[in-house]
Specification:
Elements (H helix, E strand, L loop, with lengths): L4 E4 L3 E6 L2 E6 L10 H16 L5 E6 L19 H23 L4 E5 L2 E3 L1 H8 L2 E5 L3 E3 L13 H5 L4 H10 L5 H6 L5 E3 L4 H13 L3 H14 L4 H21 L1
Parallel strand pairs: 3-4, 4-5, 5-7, 6-8, 7-9
Antiparallel strand pairs: 1-2, 2-3
Helix pairs in contact: 1-2, 2-3, 8-9
């Protein structure tokens, strides 16, 4: 699969496939654990892609044996100094902000998930607009087993599965399979591990065939409607329809 161009940083690689930008978390020796450097790089790359008119869709994936093993717990170790407390606050802000960004970007994002998608890695995956998982998936929220409270990951889970399933996942900390996450509605496709990234890129390329403004309006409307009543959703649809007709007439 030829790449148009590629840029990289120490912790995040960026590949362009036409109008599709692939963001690859690049800490394979740590199973792409989310340290501060990776979180900052991912935040900046998402913001940059959203402002780049040449980018029409995004794929988020991980290098090596897994998508992401979640928080890099080594950054939590040591004495609770003022500097460490500031770093902890920054990591918390980045974790929350990236989950919001994945939903609020004007460009759609598909997660290409193989191997481990744990904790924060699981949260990032399910905050993407679509999710392709490999049959080798190990998905879960083990925060309590590490003596941590799942503060930064619970909201995205609760928004997408019922309360009983969500509580089971965070309170027992078990790993869930590809078939499990498909059954729970957290994934769109289950494919062989080697087909995960090509399938995600294929989905993203299909998105690029749509009108960019129409697709952006659809994504924005979609997530706003999830927070509205039935009547409010219909009213929002009417407003968006009128705005898009006015846009078309102005061309």
């Amino acid at each position: 699969m030829a790449e148009d161009n590629m840029t990289s940083s120490e912790v995040l690689r960026t590949d362009n496939h036409g109008a599709v930008r692939v963001l690859t978390m690049n800490r394979p020796d740590k199973l792409n654990a989310l340290n501060t450097a990776l979180l900052v790089a991912l935040r900046d790359a998402l913001a940059s892609a959203d402002q780049d008119d040449a980018v029409r869709a995004l794929v988020l994936t991980g290098e090596g044996r897994g998508f992401s093993a979640g928080a890099d717990l080594s950054e939590f170790r040591g004495e609770a100094t003022p500097d460490q407390l500031k770093r902890n606050a920054l990591r918390s802000s980045l974790m929350s902000g990236i989950q919001v960004m994945l939903r609020s970007l004007s460009k759609p994002v598909v997660a290409a998930v193989h191997g481990a998608a744990i904790g924060g890695g699981a949260a990032f995956a399910i905050c993407c607009d679509m999710v392709v998982v490999g049959t080798n998936l190990k998905f879960g929220y083990p925060e309590l087993k590490h003596h941590l409270t799942p503060t930064g990951v619970l909201t995205s889970l609760l928004k997408q599965v019922g309360p009983k399933a969500a509580f089971e996942m965070v309170s027992l900390g078990a790993n869930f399979s590809a078939d499990d996450v498909l059954r729970l509605g957290l994934a769109n496709r289950v494919v062989a591990p080697e087909a995960v990234l090509p399938t995600a890129i294929e989905i993203a390329k299909a998105w690029t065939e749509n009108d960019a403004a129409q697709l952006a309006a659809t994504k924005n409307m979609f997530y706003r409607m999830t927070e509205l009543s039935f009547e409010e959703g219909l009213a929002l649809g009417k407003d968006v329809s009128a705005a898009m007709r006015a846009r078309a007439a102005a061309k």
